[in-house]
Amino acid sequence: MKPGALIIPLFVAIPLAGAFINSVIGKKNKAISDIIGVVITAVLVVLSLLSVYYVNQSGLIPYSVGSWKPPVGIGLVLDGLSSFMLVTVNIVAFLIALYSVNYMERFTAKFRFFTLFLLMVAGMNGVVITGDIFNLFVFLEIASVASYALVAFGTEKHELEAAFKYAVMSTVGSLFILLGIVLLYSYTSTLNMADMAVVISKSGFSNIIIFVTVLFIMGFGLKAALVPFHAWLPDAHPSAPAPISAMLSGVLIKSLGVYTLCRIIYNVIGMNVVISEVLLFLGAVSMVIGVFLAIGQWDFKRLLAYHSISQIGYVILGIGLWTPLGILGGLFHLLNHSLFKSLLFLNSGAVEHATGTRDLKQMGGISEKMPVTSGTGLVASMSIAGIPPFNGFWSKLIIIVAAVQANRYGYAFWAVLASVMTLASFMKVMKYGFYGKLRAGLESVKEAPFYMQLSMVILALLCVSGGILLLPELRAMFLDSAQTALSQGTGMAASILNMVKI
Amino acid sequence: MVVYVLCLMFFLVGIYCILRKRNIIKIIVGVIISEYAVNLFFLLVGYKSSGRSPILCSDRDVQYMAAHMVDPLPQAVVLTSIVIGLATTALLVAIAMRIYGKYRTFDITKIRELKG
Question: If pLDDT is split at 50, 70 and 90, which confidence band does B115 have?
């Protein structure tokens, strides 16, 4: 067993154990559920940074659950892309848990919130590290079911309506994914992803693979809210409590939608020109339609939700370019978007906490009263709009450069246009929401409590310093290893199987 | 072949129910039907006509058994999938009950406060 293999199952086991303990003893002692939530996510951050170190030391790390060797048993695989996603998911989850300590005070059953939250984190980590396609489906459903319950957490009219819509649409998406898995199983007679990739690359392309690809693009596209499948997102994300909106928009749609889609298309089925065209088209459409729908919104969180659709379009566009630079840009944008979008949702939560409104027309001038919230909000807005030197600028620049290098001038143009529109809509947010004259009735507004400020400030610092990841040493450690995991394509499968056999 | 077509029709009935029905409970039933159709399809993939149950016994050799057994893996996996379906359904029903408590109706055309 390679060094570091033992930490792989901990990514699922620790949050699951935390959720269980929390549901048992959290009701009696309120402080303990906060401590469990924050400490467990902090441990996961440390472990995920450790996993980056181990992946750089020894490359691919397989782990066989219960010593049943794959392809018979369930295999977990840690590679560059997995460790990249683990860092993204766990950093955001930790900061959101910190934020929830103060924010969730207004709900009665806070320990239930942390239980569901940890279940969702367990599901997302599981999706990222698993090497077995049915196991991936199970973790995907764990995270999804927890997120349906979390969207409905407030049990008010809007929450319930949004949660029902989200649950039904997402279940249909899951069914398409399961159908795809069944067809792949009947074609390859294995459920191990590496084994599947070997069988598919041996037997060549056939009609059933095309059908399965379409099913996966539909299913995972629904989870990732790409444009023809996006109708649930603008309802579900604003209705949830602010930390959950941040979690859903920040990491859930990425680990359940984008990561799984890329992983299966690149590493199992194998990328080809047609899929690349489809992804580019879906990405560009989401990017442009998302931003056009966003610009007219007056509800702060709804506006942010539409921007999530648009920014996911950038990620898919970068990954769909099928060049190393494009994949790198797409993945880097995925990380950056999870940082600044969760920061923006946390800002909207802080504003709602203080003023009780999400309507931009009823806000205005609160920057004097809430300097930390509006300052971090400004940082996040400039990041998402792509103003240098914030992190969003670098990743968008890489995606646009990659599109130009691949001779996709049209897509590069749409990316620039969507970026300009993003800037316009965030100027509107800043003008109406935070700056300008203080609106009457908001004189008694107070700044957010300590933990909420702390997590917002940390996220803002990460947004400012995100560009550091492009320095050659850090880039080789973190982004390049994630990008090579995808660009290797189905070649990775053989090396996983070889490693397991020894 | 007929079984697969029937299974597909079963799935389509479920999808039709989700898309066209206005009653929340009927939508949930649609979700259940399409879930069962996919589970059934998974079982059919491992099915072998006049095959025997996948239990190794000592009176036959392994080669013979392997040739005549149905595939055990889909059966094991479908169990998990059914449990997941149970969780989803329970949550959907719980949400539907809460929706009824707030709106006093199951009709989705009257539950439209969000713009979509």
Answer: low
Residue B110 counted as domain residue: no
Q: Is B80 a domain residue?
A: yes
Query: Residue A71: is the preceding peptide bond cis (ω within 30°)?
Result: yes
More confident site: B29 or A500:
B29
Residue B38: which of A161, A182, A186 has the nearest Cβ? A182
What's residue A10's pLDDT? 95
Contacts of B103 in chain A (CB under 8 A): 157
CB-based contact, A162 to chain B, within 8 Å: yes
Instruction: Report d(CA A230, CA A210) in Å as an integer.
Output: 23
Q: Please report the DSSP string for A339-352 in residue order.
A: HHHHHHHHHHHHHH
Residue of B nearest to A181 (CA): B42
Tell me if B106 is assigned to some domain: no
CB pairs < 8 Å spanning A and B: 86
Total domain count for chain B? Answer: 1
Average pLDDT rounded to a whole number, residues A207-220: 94
Band of pLDDT at residue B31, cut at 50, 70 and 90 = very high
Please state whether the predicted TM-score (pTM) of the whole model is above 0.90.
yes
CA nearest A38: which of A263, A243, A314?
A243
Domain with residue B66: its CATH number is: 1.10.287
Domain that holds residue B21: 2-88
Predicted-complex ipTM score:
0.95
B57 domain-assigned: yes
Residue A281, number of CB atoms within 10 A of its CB: 15
> Is B87 in Cβ contact with A161 (below 8 Å)?
no
Taking CB atoms and an 8 Å cutoff, what residues of chain A touch B27?
168
- A470 Cβ under 8 Å from any chain B Cβ: no
Share of chain A above pLDDT 90, in %: 71
Confirm or reject contact between A69 and chain B (CB < 8 A).
Answer: no
Q: Which of A105-119, A324-338, A429-443 has the lowest mean pLDDT?
A: A429-443
Structure tokens at A56: 């750089």
Q: Answer yes or no: do A175 and B34 touch at CB < 8 A.
A: yes
Find the CB nearest A160 among B15, B77, B98: B98
d(CA A120, CA A92): 13
